[in-house]
Design brief:
- The two termini are about 35 Å apart.
- The protein has helices at about 15-25, 70-75, 130-140, 155-170, 175-200, 205-220, 230-235, 240-250, 255-270, 280-285, 290-305, 305-315, and strands at about 1-5, 30-35, 40-50, 50-60, 60-65, 80-85, 90-95, 95-100, 105-110, 115-120, 120-130.
- The longest helix is centred in the middle third of the chain and has 25 residues, at about 175-200.
- A hairpin with a 2-residue loop joins strand 3 (about 40-50) and strand 4.
- It is of the alpha+beta class.
- It is globular, with a radius of gyration of 22 Å.
Length: about 325
C-alpha cells in the first residue's frame, strides 16, 4: 500500500494540522477533533483494487463527523464503505442507529451524515466500493448500514482475513488479478452482511430478507453443481414452495436466477485477462455447470455466441 501519512516523521506540534490538510487533499468529508491531549499519532496508507479503494488507518482517539455539506462537496453518492476493525474500538452513529465495533468486526458506512469515534490505538481498514455492488444483492443499504457484523460470524472472519492478506500481497499481483481478488472479497462481505441481517429478523423471516439471504447464498456457492432451488430452500431454512412464491412476487424464478448468475459470472471470466489460462471446461466447472456441453448450450442461448466465440470476440482467444 502507498504510505500517505506517518505522524512520527513530523514535529509534534504540526502533526494534527498536517493530518487535517491530508484529509482535505484526499477529499475525505470529515471534520475531526482529538479526544485527548496526548501527542497526535496516525498513519494512513491507500491502494486501488480496480473499482475499489482500500485505505488502512492507524490513529489515536478521535471524533470524526461527516457533515451534509462535506458529503455534498465530495459528490460520492454512488459509493459506500465497509470498515474492518483491526485493533481498538470504533463507534458509528448513522441515521437512527449506533453501534460499536471491536477487533475482527466489520461495518457498512453509507456516505450519509455520520459521527464516528475511535479509541486509542485504533487500526481500521476501509474499503470503498460502488454502492450498487451491495444493494443489487442485499437491498437498500440503510437496512444494514452502521450494523455491526461481528467476529463471531465465520463469514466475517473470512472477509477480514482475506482483505488483511490482500493488503500485504496486492503489490505482487498484476492489476487485473488484484481487481478480481477485490471482487471475490466483496462476495465474502455480502455473505457476512446477509448472515448478520438474518439474526435480527424473528422467524418466520420477512420475505425481503429471505430473498436477500438466498441470493447471497447463490453468490457464495455458484461453483457447486448441486446448487438448485431445492438445496437453496434448505440452506435458507424455508420450504421450496415458499421460496418460489417469494421469487415469483418479484417477477423472478429461483432456477432462472441461479442460471442467470452462473452465466453472468462465466461471461465476466471469459472477458477477464486473468482467466485466459482457464480452459472452457475448467471455467464451466467453476461456475457450476456439470459439463462443457451444458455450458455451451446455455451460454449461446443467453448471449448469442458459444463461449469460445465470446472469448474470441473480446480479443482473448479460446480453448
Amino acid at each position: 500500500m502507498k504510505l500517505l501519512f506517518l505522524s512520527e516523521k513530523l514535529p509534534i506540534h504540526t502533526r494534527f494540522n498536517r493530518w487535517l490538510e491530508l484529509l482535505e487533499e484526499q477529499r475525505l468529508p470529515l471534520e475531526q477533533k482529538q479526544l485527548d491531549a496526548a501527542p497526535f499519532e496516525a498513519k494512513l496508507e491507500i491502494a486501488t483494487l480496480g473499482p475499489l479503494t482500500m485505505t488502512r488507518v492507524s490513529e489515536g482517539p478521535l471524533r470524526s463527523e461527516a457533515t451534509p455539506s462535506a458529503i455534498r462537496r465530495l459528490g460520492d453518492e454512488g459509493c459506500i464503505s465497509v470498515g474492518f476493525t483491526l485493533a481498538g474500538e470504533r463507534t458509528v452513529h448513522q441515521r437512527d442507529r449506533a453501534s460499536t465495533q471491536r477487533q475482527g468486526d466489520l461495518v457498512v458506512i453509507e456516505h450519509q451524515p455520520t459521527v464516528m469515534t475511535t479509541s486509542p490505538g485504533n487500526q481500521s481498514l476501509y474499503l470503498k466500493m460502488p454502492r450498487e455492488r451491495l444493494e443489487s444483492v442485499l437491498g437498500p443499504a440503510h437496512r444494514y448500514a452502521a450494523l455491526t457484523i461481528g467476529a463471531d460470524l465465520a463469514t466475517a472472519i473470512l472477509a477480514t482475513s482475506f482483505f488483511e492478506e490482500l493488503t500485504r500481497m496486492h503489490h505482487q499481483l498484476d492489476p487485473v488479478t488484484v481487481a478480481r481478488m477485490g471482487s471475490i472479497g466483496v462476495d465474502l462481505i455480502v455473505a457476512s452482511i446477509a448472515e448478520r441481517m438474518a439474526q435480527d429478523v424473528p422467524l418466520p423471516l420477512s420475505g425481503s430478507v429471505l430473498v436477500q439471504r438466498a441470493k447471497a447464498h447463490i453468490e457464495a456457492n455458484l461453483g457447486d453443481p448441486n446448487l438448485d432451488p431445492r438445496h437453496l430452500a434448505a440452506a435458507v431454512g424455508v420450504s421450496l414452495r415458499r421460496l418460489e412464491e417469494l421469487f415469483e412476487e418479484r417477477d423472478q424464478q429461483v432456477s432462472d436466477w441461479i442460471w442467470q448468475r452462473r452465466l453472468e459470472v462465466a461471461a465476466d471470466r471469459l472477458a477477464d485477462p486473468a482467466c485466459t489460462h482457464l480452459t472452457l471446461g475448467t471455467l464451466a466447472g467453476g461456475c457450476g455447470f456439470s459439463n462443457r456441453t451444458q455450458f455451451s448450450r446455455r451460454f449461446k442461448d443467453r448471449f448469442g455466441l458459444a463461449p469460445g466465440e465470446f472469448r474470441h470476440a473480446v480479443g482473448l482467444g479460446g480453448r
